[in-house]
Automatic annotation (TrEMBL), chains A, B:
Molecular-function annotations in GO: beta-ureidopropionase activity
Biological process per Gene Ontology, one example term: beta-alanine biosynthetic process via 3-ureidopropionate
A Pfam entry, by short name: CN_hydrolase
InterPro entries in the record: Aliph_Amidase/BUP, C-N_Hydrolase, C-N_Hydrolase_sf
Descriptive protein name: Beta-ureidopropionase
Family under the similarity heading: Belongs to the carbon-nitrogen hydrolase superfamily. BUP family.
Keyword Phosphoprotein annotated: yes
Length: 383, 383
């Protein structure tokens, strides 16, 4: 971890680079510049009062003759936990509902059609502790939990699709899951999708709590486009992104919880690579802040026990299939990133780059089927 | 294309950012800093005399108890063509041999064990013209061509593995291929590997000249480690990198030829994502300069015919499995990037992040087999 937390990579570059160099550096780093989106003054004021960053950008596609633009506004929410981690569980959940409620209200002012919160957004990311109590009490039914009901109200009130990643308790099977509940703008639950890949690394002892998801690569047809949710560690697995895309996803959300020392140099790479490789939009969302736990814990790195495991660095962003990306939210503050996408860009870029046609997938299906056998013989040439 | 060509992204940042900010910006952009490698004065002098950039870096792994370090030095060569594109074919080839010969001599002074040249390194990247003559005359036998013989001499002389990407003519099958010839440090040809994915985009009319490779995902066991070659457009296909890794590649070279307007914002993303996702090292190599052709040609973009298709932006770099990367070579000059890798890092990072164990590949083999069927029904949930 760095001693001081830089607020924002982009702002640091903007502060110090001369204009001509800045333009080229940004082009090389971030691709074609995303235009700023005009947001209503009431939203800007409300975000300021409520102490969160509000940024807006748009990706534009080429005008076509036969298809009208397919513009959709996504809202990415990143935030600190509100109460200390030893506050009563219900108080913590209610405080998070309240905080998210006031951010989503601003998202509505900005015309957001689909909003997505961070991973297990109702709770601290407590899996580092390896304690089961009280953390498993944060788990709720995806279908009938208070959090789903809360999100259904938001969806109905604001005519907004809500992607709500929670810790799920499946009473029927006596299991816990890391799940995203997808709620239609009608308020109906469209379905749920579970985290496909579970980390076993450092403070991310998540396989202690839940297992690999069993919902495959479900894609949700919303009024505003087809969406999928690749939760956190699944972003390290290109095949995971790929199968969501093969199932028709136009936007893939990646609600996450990850800290600087571990993953920050990978953060800007993985979701963006997925947008490029799959001709779709990806939305990477990370929480912010440092979460302190009452019981000390170790991190499997030979170091002394401690009460926090580092800084969640925010930096939520949207990547486009043309290789460009939006600026990120800050590394330190709560924030709402509103990005207008024209989903027509996906097919335009697909027609241009043709990765789906040049992918030779049938051959990979065969090669992969052979490679996963325990007696697989790698194709290694020796002298 | 930008009006002026920035020499180097890294140098621009170093020139303008204050030290503390620079350190954080570099950490976020490039990961754990790669140390500079001390290179012998004779090499530095020779590079200066011969007018090419010489840079050296090293990636260090943790010291283990049971395995000694597995250090290997790779050399990435990027260069302009030497003669005008309308010079006699044999003169052009000989001039390239001569240029590469003087660069490889410096690589030998720097202790390089494995050197890799840029895609179809003996010729201009003339596929934009769609003319067959004289360009197909640059094609040579992989086994018995002059260029392979030339590389075998280099390999023997310097005890160096040579990866030589050429336009291959297979007389036996009357076919052309985009091929990398891999020559052992003994001077023997280890084998060849053909470009798996062929672009059909803009000026990259390559499917006009050759087809998708039929050599699968061969990995070459050299004295210095197991290597594979993912040629150019294959870097856009995560499955391609993945299958080289599944076959045991520790270092994957990506000899390329690509221009700024098309791909530059993707350049720093794709090979690096592959290093992360596959727990291996990747080496991205791009040519430099602008190549002018006598006959004018159009680029399928509605614009007027022209005689060049833009600036090859160099920027060759090495990415490590821990998410870090070396600085790039310049965007404008011939260059040799010498990077010392400790291949022990691959297994260390694999043991840490465990992507191969959490990858659920058997399930993807099934899903992919289903998805490639013409009557595949995507898993889309509707309200």
């Amino acid at each position: 971890m760095a001693g001081c937390e830089l607020d924002s990579l982009e702002e640091t570059l903007e502060t110090h680079l001369p204009e001509a160099e800045l333009r080229e550096v940004k082009r090389i780093l971030f691709g074609k510049q995303t235009e700023k989106l005009d947001l209503p003054a009431c939203a800007v004021d409300a975000a300021s009062e409520r102490n969160f960053e509000l940024k807006g950008y748009k990706f534009e596609a080429t005008q076509e003759q036969l298809r009208p633009p397919r513009k959709v506004r996504v809202g990415l929410v990143q935030n600190h936990i509100v109460l200390p981690t030893d506050a009563p569980v219900l108080d913590q959940i209610n405080a998070m509902h309240s905080r998210i409620g006031e951010i989503v209200e601003v998202a509505a002012m900005c015309g957001v059609n689909i909003v997505c919160f961070q991973e297990t957004w109702t709770m601290p990311f407590a899996f580092c502790t390896r304690e089961k109590e009280p953390w498993t009490e944060f788990a709720e039914s995806a279908e009938d939990g208070n959090t789903t009901h809360f999100c259904q109200e938001l969806a109905r009130k604001y005519n907004m699709v809500v992607v709500s990643p929670i810790l799920e308790r499946d009473e029927q099977h006596s299991t816990l899951w890391n799940t995203a509940v997808v709620i239609s703008n009608s308020g109906n639950m469209l379905g749920k999708t579970r985290k496909n890949h579970i980390p076993r690394i450092g403070d991310f002892n998540e396989s202690t709590y839940y297992m690999e998801g069993n919902t495959g690569h479900t894609v949700f047809q919303t009024q505003f486009g087809r969406i999928a949710v690749n939760i956190c560690y699944g972003r390290h697995h290109p095949l995971n992104w790929f199968m969501y895309s093969m199932n028709g996803a136009e936007i893939i959300f990646n609600p996450s919880a990850t800290v600087g020392a571990l993953s920050e140099p990978m953060w800007a790479i993985e979701a963006r690579n997925a947008a490029i490789a799959n001709h779709c939009f990806t939305c990477a969302i990370n929480r912010v802040g440092t979460e302190h736990f009452k019981s000390e814990f170790t991190s499997g790195d030979g170091k002394k026990a401690h009460h926090d495991f580092g800084h969640f660095y925010g930096s939520s962003y949207v990547a486009a299939p043309d290789g460009s990306r939006s600026p990120g939210l800050s590394r330190t503050r709560d924030g709402l990133l509103v990005v207008e996408l024209d989903l027509n860009m996906n097919r335009q870029i697909s027609d241009k780059w043709s990765f789906k046609m040049t992918g030779r997938y049938a051959e990979y299906a065969e090669e992969l089927s052979a490679a996963v056998r325990h007696d697989f013989k790698p194709n290694i040439v020796k002298e």
